Amino acid sequence: MPALTIALVAERRSTYLADGRSQQECAALTHDGEVDEVVAALKRLGHTVVQLPGIASLVQDLATNRNKEWDLVFNMSQGFYGSAREAQVPALLDAYQIPYTFADAATMALCQNKINTKTVLDHCGVPNAAFSVISPHQRDIGDLVQDAKHLAFPLFVKLGTEGSSKGIDSFNKVNSTAELTKAVETLRSDFPDQPILVESFLAGREFTVSLLGTGELSRVIGVREHIWQDPSKPGHDGMSNGDCTQNFSSWQSKSSTDCGLVIKDYKLSETIDPQVQTACLLALDAWTLLGCRDAGRVDIRFDSNEPGSTAQVMEVNPISGMLPGHSPLPASAQVNGIPFEQLMAGIIESTLLRISQKSLTNMDSAQYISV
């Protein structure tokens, strides 16, 4: 691999917390340690890294032509404002024809909007939970409940354009019309401009599948299972169930070590579990269908624990956490013999391969036109 000059765009969580933002508002932003680990790995691979702390710095560098010094951008930007904030940096880079890691603006915007994602998955026959959408313009609670009447309880209520479990707490799983109404009112109070997604609750096993590559070269490099403990029973494998009162991720549980969650990473070469294999195949289908690139995750959950249960796509993550030993993507890769530095090399190689293929395609098109 040639030595490159790589601009790394990432909003450090500490910057926004120091500016008075809440932990929940900053949940999707990168940990300082995450940025530092990525920078260190890229440097060990022989690359020069230019750090840009967000879109404002990127705009300044584009305006002064500093981007002429870059070979590509390593995009870790989550953005902070707007319903398509993860697409903002990729859109700028596309406009300036600067190559970058991970999905393009169209895929980023699609995957951030869970409603649009599910609509595309439905259209293409990819399994996902039955759902109903509550528009921010709908005001009559009775109408809202009527819209979701075709769904059977328990249901799960969440924001339509958020990630990192933002807006999710113990109240989001509802078992009655009264609880549904209360959950909608709570989310509306905190996020008045957001559409709300009401889904059938998936009660089966939950997996997050890590992938590397683009298109037909995409492959699964790790699988992590989230095993939620029954708060009325002893912990699993000798682990305490802590204060767990739920069997789904919330923004708080993702930062807690005492939430009753047991994590199990699978070695793919040794796994014969049919549900793990099914989750991998479904994740790969969703990943390629939505145009994800280079590396990321797809979250899968089965609809029940009964025989014959069906795997469903919960969420597609075209840009994923990169904190070694913590984030599912690098942690699952490590279990499967891909250390962090090798993972970074794989991401850069995937990006460079896309660039070279695009250049050849453009060259062939130009030759065809000239004839």
Automatic annotation (TrEMBL):
The keyword ATP-binding applies. It comes from the Eukaryota. Keywords: ATP-binding, Ligase, Nucleotide-binding. PROSITE patterns: ATP_GRASP (PS50975). Residues 118-349 form the ATP-grasp domain. GO terms for molecular function: ATP binding; D-alanine-D-alanine ligase activity; metal ion binding. Belongs to the D-alanine--D-alanine ligase family. This is Glutathione synthetase ATP-binding domain-like protein. The lineage of its organism: Eukaryota, Fungi, Dikarya, Ascomycota, Pezizomycotina.
